[in-house]
Amino acid sequence: MAHVTKFTMAAVGNMTNHYSREADDMKPRKNINIDRSKTHLNYNLAPERNVSQVEFIRQRIQEVKCQKRSDVKVMCDWVITAPKDLPADKEQQFFQSSYNFLQKKYGAENVVSAYVHKDETTPHLHFAFVPVTLDKKKGFAKVSAKEVLSRSALQSFHKDLQKHLEKDLGCRVNVLNEATKAGNMTVPELKKATAAAVIEKGQEAMASLAAASRKLDENMRKIDLHKHVEKSYGFFGSDVVKLQAAEYKTMTERAVAAGAWGKYYKAAEQLYEKLQGDTVQKLQKELDEEADKSYEKDKIIAELQRTNKELQEQLQTFQSALEQEPTAAEIIRAKQKEIVQEKEYTRIMAYKPYSEFVTSATDIFYAEMQKQLKKGVSVENIDYKKVAAAMLSEHGPATVLDTLRKHGKMSMQEASKTLSAARSMSRGISRGISRGLGLEI
Predict the structure, then answer these.
(1) Among 154, 157, 319, 352, which is most buried by a count of CB atoms within 10 Å?
(2) What is the mean pLDDT of residues 400-423?
């Protein structure tokens, strides 16, 4: 069985700590029962990297288009649970095969981690990945959990996974069950389906007990009849009395057993009623909690919208006042510019390549800017022609143009102009070198 969850950037830290069992994950979590004596049995199927899981996510979303909103889902997590009837010697192969299926489906370059947890109630795999897809209209890669995990994709997921696993393992693998036959369910939907299944099984058991109870009632009526015959006609022939006495003894033994079964039936009936009541109450409580959370979330959004509107009004008033004080306005604009440049400086200097080899266009872009900043060039005076020329030495014009637009925040016109100047610069350098060597161009 499998289910998927999406996470914003604010939530990935806690989740990645949980995957790798970092120190921050020592505190107890709701619905999680971790046996620390088995934690050493956990393992990661994904390649080990020289950066943390969170840093990998940050780097990956910088490489593709990702909207700068706090509610953007930058990581998804498929939890694949080993079926209860899976042979023990097939478990490791089951998780490896599941990983291969997921890696191929979502791209090896997007895999954050793939930890198998053996220290919880049931062995399971956490396959975490950045949801990257191709924008078919514009032709570039982007982060979009909504498109990657579309309804149609989720509906076919379990069937595709089961087909892959059975082909790979060579045996029946029960990924599909009553809760997943109709496609991937949300947690509330899954809880409803589970509760309904429990109640249905209880009803079947009660129907069987009711049939047994009716049979016992019939036997009890026969016993009462024999008691009556013996008391009324016991003074007749001894053969008749002995026969009825033998039957009476047999039926008395049955009566004792019937009494025991009657008590059992009564206890089972009470247990079923309690189970049904507890299940319904628990489900209702959980649904009420979900509704409360949704209500609270709506309240918070409404409050934020109101606050934002007030701030916009205050800003307009402030700007109107500034227009009447040109000197003050100039000072504030200069300060704002300084703050923006400081943030940009920090962003540029914080960039680190994936490896010690600076090869990608993005790596070269940031390396050249860092080089200029270390020489004392201010952020606003960075020579992007040199940056583009450095990239052209390793990559084609289309890649350079795309990198300038994405990481240099340039318009198409600005990026094209910078690229043209960089190509002229590169040709000029080549001519100078050739003349110095006495070569004709």
Answers:
(1) 157
(2) 91
**Would you say residue 272 has pLDDT above 70?**
no
Residue 55 to residues 28, 51, 90, 255, 357: CA-CA distances in angstroms? 25, 6, 34, 74, 18
3-state SS class at 79: strand
Query: How distant, in Å, are the alpha carbons of 39, 46, 168, 433 from that of 100?
Result: 24, 10, 10, 51
Residues composing the chain: 441
DSSP conformation letters of 115-139: EEE-SSSS-EEEEEE--EEE-TTT-
Helix (H, G, I), strand (E, B) or coil at 333: helix
Q: Which residues of 289-304 are buried (b: 16+ CB within 10 A; e: fewer)?
A: eeeeeeeeeeeeeeee
Q: Is the dihedral of CA 41, 45, 46, 48 positive or negative?
A: positive
Distance of alpha carbon 56 from alpha carbon 45, whole angstroms:
16
The pLDDT tens digits for 328-382 are 667 777 777 888 888 889 999 998 887 666 778 899 999 999 999 999 998 889 9
Is the Cβ–Cβ distance between 53 and 130 less than 8 Å? no
In this predicted model, which residue has the larger pLDDT, 412 or 325?
Answer: 412
The Cα–Cα gap between 48 and 55 comes to 13
* Antiparallel, parallel or unpaired: β 73-81 and 2-8: antiparallel
C-beta separation of 85 from 177 below 8 A: no
Which CATH code fits 2-185? 3.30.930.30
Nearest CA-CA partner of 8 in 79, 67, 63, 81: 67
d(CA 161, CA 102): 9
Tell me the three state secondary structure of residue 8. Answer: strand
- Asked if pLDDT for residue 160 goes beyond 80, the answer is yes
What is residue 326's predicted lDDT score, i.e. its pLDDT?
63
Sorted by where each begins, the domain ranges of the chain are 2-185, 190-294, 336-436
